[in-house]
């Protein structure tokens, strides 16, 4: 497994261990999750430390020798914000290492589960987006995910692997501390500070709770079938609606404000069709947005009450972002 110390990865790892799975983490570090670190320290999970580019082929081959499945949740954030440079970073930090890791697994029977993104569809004219719709990535992140999908398909065809490509909608929930949309709104609401949405207020996105994303991933691991599956709720929520809901649930007196000049016709929409995942994986999202947001707000409140020595990332977690947050979701 890669990415076991990340947001979705640490939640998934707990489910895997609870299900009695024998897990080896592969990567340059364990990651930020203290829960994951505790499992490694206790010997419940093995950790193979290797270079982040996965160039140590012989070491990787030994680790993959008896593996039944390879679960790929790892993601390295590009350093650049410029489109061209970021696209190169996506290739260097995410696509090329994945190809090397899969190359080390060649000649072995494998089931591959890969965390992709709904963003690979781009701005589709039809909503919700279906798995049979042609991808049209519009960002370096989406392009990187799409390239990884194609690399997996190509190598799997030659090696005879089964592959589950999971296109996650925007994942949220307890443990999410990076500066994405929902954490940024919660930080502002708990500080009772208004947040200005200067663009994209009417954009609609599909938000799925991390426990639902993990449930879908567990089904993909347990069922060695080949397919591409949207992992979402099928429900769209605009950024303005999301902000208003967060502020209401947090009991904030301040209110989010948006650019009133924004026109509905310019709004982007990205909502998952869920029938294929339901039929073939037996997965249907169960956690409603209001319930899930209330849970995440409670988790952030617990961080505020915790002693400063208890969680070293608290200060970084609770900074207020003054700008409208991005919607890009990663594993």
Kindly describe this structure.
The protein is an alpha/beta fold. The protein is 40% helix and 14% strand. The chain is built from 11 helices and 13 strands. A 4-stranded parallel beta sheet has the order 3-4-5-10, with helices on both faces. The C terminus is likely disordered.
Low-confidence segments, ≥5 residues, pLDDT <50?
A: 309-331
By helix and strand content, what is the structural category? alpha/beta
Termini Cα gap: 13 Å
Number of self-contained structural domains: 2
The fold-level CATH name of the largest domain is Rossmann fold
In round numbers, the mean pLDDT is 89
Largest sheet: 4 strands, parallel
Helical proportion? 40-55%
The fraction of residues in strands falls at 5-15%
Q: What is the 3D shape?
A: globular
**Helix-strand pattern, N to C?**
HEHEHEHEHEEHEEEHEEHEEHHH
At the first level of CATH, the class of the largest domain is: Alpha Beta
CATH architecture of the largest domain: 3-Layer(aba) Sandwich
Report the strand count: 13
